[in-house]
Amino acid sequence: MTTTTARRLSRRTVPALPEPRGPLSAAVMGLLRGERDVDVPSPAASEPYGDDLQLALYVLYELHYQGFDGVPDEREWDSGLLAVRGALEDRFLGALRADVPVGAGDSAWAALDELQVEPVDGTGSVSHFLRDEGTVAQLREYAALRSLYHLKEADPHAWVIPRLYGRAKAAMVAVEFDEFGGGRADEIHAQLFADLMTDLGLETAYGHYLDAAPAEMLATVNLMSLFGLHRALRAALVGHFASVEVTSSPGSRRLAEALRRVGAGAAAVRFYAEHVEADAVHEQVVRHDVIGGLLEEEPALEADVVFGIRATGHLEDRLADRLLAAWRDGRSALRSPERAGTAA
Amino acid sequence: MLVEGPVEVVGEDGEVTVCDRFSVAVCTCRRSKIFPWCDTSHRKRAKRTTKDEDGTA
Predict the structure, then answer these.
(1) Which end of chain A has fewer beta carbons closer than 10 Å to its terminal beta carbon, N or C?
(2) Contact assignment for A118 to B20 by CB distance below 8 Å
(3) How far apart are CA B36 and CA A305, in angstroms?
């Protein structure tokens, strides 16, 4: 059981730059270390969902959150780095637009309704797998990977607030307030996740598991940063957020059941139990007031709401395939499994 | 059913349950495992071609 005094704030630490995974990420890391004459290869030759491009993009986005040890904070707005980031984003977004087609008349409400139907059998779903047969080791791997998002939970979505107004803004802020603990620091969802990691014997320092995370995990976080940082993609951000909130409650219930079954501590169960209750509320507020309010004011953005919903599903499916293929094979889903063995 | 928070629910046995969230989803179908709050157990279940997502926000 975690006590308040035992808590270390994961964001108090600034992570080291990760290991490069190819020429693009090596060049970006060189630029961040202040090397001169770095030749950044064209991302056109790089697989858009691959390790090299996704890590390069992830590292550049991190400058807007927590940064890296040895990289001056001011480089967040370095025009050369922003130009590289733009080229990587074009490649990533181009692949998503091609893989996730949206028709002119596609309805955001229909896309959300489809997510609301619970499958009778959970084949292909990580939360069903973990509930039914997940081991402690697999639950630890899952938490280590998801920590890339949950240790900054709801931060990428806060960027959309200045781009919304009226009903959509009030509702988005209300949900974010809940995500950030409703005014109580020890209830911030990122803190609840750090408590879960402590219960599972994982390292809670921010960025610790970046090297262990495969491209499929990086892509799901990069999607939020991409949508959050671009005003032009504000409707896609809202669609993404809605799709996560709609699917979160039943998925969280299964993960809470998985953690109870393996005898995880109270803090570990608490994170997902809180999300069962909170996201049953958030889902409705995001549907009716954030999406409803946005589309009332800007109906032309409906296709982008649908794009955000479907792009989220596309990348979450890729991640699920990766995790389940490894686990069903008796393998680790991490790139460097020994990192998950590091206790907090 | 969404109700503006904070909410106090008094059960048939007189037990009081409190939630101070800004908005509270109260279960009206009695299927919730966290009754009196909603856990989305009211949802339809069906065979679906698309996969289930696993993200949490």
Answers:
(1) N
(2) no
(3) 32
Over residues A160-172, the mean pLDDT reads 98
**Within a domain: B20:** yes
Confidence of residue A5 (pLDDT cuts 50, 70, 90): very low
Domain residues for B29? 1-41
Least confident of A2-16, A29-43, A297-311: A2-16
For residues A189 and A150, the answer to whether their CB atoms sit within 8 Å is: yes
Gap from B13 CA to chain A (nearest CA, Å)? 22
| Mean of pLDDT over chain B | 86
Give A64-94 pLDDT, tens digit per residue: 999 999 999 999 999 999 999 999 999 999 9
- If 0-12 CB within 10 Å is exposed, 13-18 middle and 19+ buried, where does residue A84 land? buried
Q: Which of A227, A205, A221, A216 is nearest to A319 (CA)?
A: A216
| Nearest-CB residue to A174 (from B23, B37, B47) | B23
- The reported pLDDT for the residue numbered B47 is 60
Number of domains forming the structure of chain B: 1
Q: Are residues A86 and A133 in the same domain?
A: no
Are both A173 and A314 inside the same structural domain? yes
Interchain CB distance below 8 Å, A154 and B44: no
CA distance A272 to chain B (A): 8
Chain A (96-135) residues lying within 8 Å, Cβ to Cβ, of chain B: 114-128
ipTM higher than threshold 0.85 = no
Q: What percent of chain A has pLDDT over 70?
A: 95
* A3 pLDDT above the threshold of 70: no
Helix (H, G, I), strand (E, B) or coil at B16: strand
Residues A76 and A143 in one domain: no
Calculate how close chain A gets to B11, using CA atoms only, in Å: 18
Q: How many domains does chain A have?
A: 2
